[in-house]
Design a protein that fits this description.
Shape: globular
Number of helices: 20
CATH architecture: 2-Layer Sandwich
Number of strands: 14
Largest sheet: 7 strands, antiparallel
CATH topology: Creatine Kinase, Chain A, domain 2
Structural class: alpha+beta
Strand content: 5-15%
Number of domains: 1
Radius of gyration: 23 Å
């Protein structure tokens, strides 16, 4: 263990801060495709019974009209977070007819880009901006990549923790500045060690042939309809998924909040010749918001993001500058296809302990060389993580994967012991033991279980995912919401529709002026 990590642990133990740390806020954002009973992407509109995708706080859409996104509020208890996520699923299944939710991260059977409907958000300026941004993503990267689904884990420390931590660290000055520096240190360590999350929770080692299309790959064929990488954990997070060439040279700095904001603003303001060829407004119709490297901040496909809740019409970078980091969003999780909700409370607890390990471990500024090591490690684990011979880089030294992973697990175990201090059932230690076992035996990993089941049953990727999707649909339909919870979601849906109508009624700018005003705030 590093001396700083040991010092923090001693202080946390002596001050009995474990119970306080378990009260950190934990939220989930989960994406999933609506599909037909035959496993094809749904072409129906976002169901009106779910409310407005523009304004509903819990249920919206991501890229596609068929790509639902569920958002839980930040909860202090992991079980409460999962219960809310399950309630969303129950409500949605009560509104769907014969459609079901796709259980896997990689898409269902696709019949080309035009088979994927782009999400619509009404005719308000903000709604049009969201739609045109997605249209631009389709032109830039293809729609198929935007149909990939994932889980984002949102985490923040209890507010009562920060003054005590600042005092322990011997730092003076504004508390907000200390909190920002601490969160950015956490973010840098998530980048350094986030490959462990890809390994443990990656669940996308295979894809449908329709997703591969005519691209050249080194994949193997499991059957005529399925491509796979033998040792992959998360093709979603590999160079085959969200990685793209146009963003590789961005060099967004995570060493400082203001460097981070400046880097994103620079990318939004920098023209990119290949996107200029697409055109911005062609024959009177917008193809993209601009022809720059990024249309908006969210286009930057990062492993982790420091976040502040933006107010209406406020850019995310401006929200960060004005109010600092509110929480951290880990974006590296595949849908856990063996869980009806996509993940369980144990997984959330492990991620919480991992976040705390990253906070209390020394986190020097990232250099260009270390950033290249980070990219190497993430790609190596995403594509080859279960290969017994895979090695990772740490400060220029090659380390066997299992040795490096078990070293991290040992340090995270110390955090779990702290969090379990007042819990005889040891929920954090129990889930950590499961993860340690999966490092010793990779056949326990979800990525390995997927391939094993497909082989044993003679299933294609689509048949495998459709079977699990049907099982999950039955799980939720057999467990309907209570009247009180059903009323809560129904009222939220109606309120969101009214809110969208009010936004559309009160718009008083042309779309062109709205865009100019939006981009001026950088």
């Amino acid at each position: 263990m590093t001396s700083r990590f040991q010092e923090c642990l001693r202080w946390l133990q002596d001050a009995d801060l474990g119970p306080l740390l378990t009260r950190g806020r934990k939220g989930i954002e989960k994406e999933c495709l609506r599909v037909t009973p035959t496993g094809d992407i749904a072409h129906t509109s976002h169901p009106r019974a779910l409310g407005s995708a523009l304004t509903h706080p819990d249920i919206t859409t991501d890229y596609s009209e068929a790509l639902l996104e569920f958002r839980t509020p930040p909860c202090a208890d992991a079980e409460e977070t999962v219960r809310f996520l399950e309630d969303i699923h129950r409500f949605v299944y009560g509104c769907l007819e014969d459609e079901i939710l796709w259980a896997a991260s990689m898409p269902c059977r696709l019949r080309g880009d035009e088979d994927i409907p782009i999400a619509g958000y009404g005719h308000s300026n903000v709604g049009m901006m969201k739609h045109i941004y997605r249209r631009g993503l389709g032109y830039r990267y293809g729609r198929a990549m935007q149909a990939i689904a994932g889980v984002h884990f949102n985490y923040s420390l209890p507010e009562a923790f920060w003054p005590a931590y600042q005092y322990q660290e011997g730092e003076s000055g504004p508390l907000r500045d200390f909190v920002d520096r601490s969160y950015f240190g956490l973010v840098r360590n998530i980048q350094r060690y986030g490959w462990l999350v890809l390994y443990l929770f990656g669940a996308s080692p295979a894809v449908c042939r329709s997703f591969v299309g005519l691209r050249d790959t080194d994949f193997k064929r499991l059957d005529p309809e399925t491509f796979y990488a033998p040792f992959a954990t998360s093709l979603r997070m590999s160079d085959f998924g969200y990685k793209n060439k146009s963003q590789r040279g961005l060099d967004i700095s995570y060493n400082d909040l203001y460097e981070y904001v400046a880097g994103l603003c620079r990318a939004i303001e920098t023209p990119y010749p290949p996107y200029r060829e697409i055109g911005v407004k062609v024959d009177g119709e917008y193809r993209q918001l601009n022809d720059h490297i990024l249309q908006i901040e969210n286009e930057y496909y990062s492993f982790v993001r420091p976040k502040q809740v933006a107010r209406s019409g406020e850019r995310p970078t401006l929200a960060l500058e004005r109010r600092g980091v509110q929480y951290v969003e880990l974006r590296a999780l595949d849908l856990g296809c063996f869980h009806p909700s996509g993940l369980d409370a144990g997984e959330i607890r492990f991620l919480e302990a991992f976040m705390l390990f990253c906070l209390f471990t020394e986190s020097p500024p990232l250099t260009g060389e270390e950033s290249r090591e980070i990219e190497h490690n993430q790609l190596a684990v995403a594509r080859h993580g279960r290969d017994p011979d895979v090695t990772l880089q740490e400060r220029g030294i090659s380390r066997p994967f299992a040795e490096f992973a078990l070293d991290l697990i040992g340090r995270i175990e110390a955090i779990c012991a702290l969090l379990d201090a007042a819990a005889p059932e040891r929920p954090y230690g129990s889930v950590l033991n499961r993860q340690r076992a999966a490092i010793h035996d990779p056949s326990l990993l979800p990525s390995a279980r997927m391939l094993a089941e497909m082989r044993e049953r003679g299933e294609s990727f689509v048949a495998f995912a459709l079977r699990l999707s049907e099982e999950h649909a039955r799980y939720f339909r057999d467990r309907p919401l209570s009247k009180e919870r059903a009323a809560y979601f129904a009222e939220a849906a109606e309120a969101s529709l009214a809110k969208q109508a009010e936004i559309e009624r009160t718009d008083d700018l042309s779309f062109e002026d709205y865009l100019k005003h939006y981009y001026a705030n950088c």
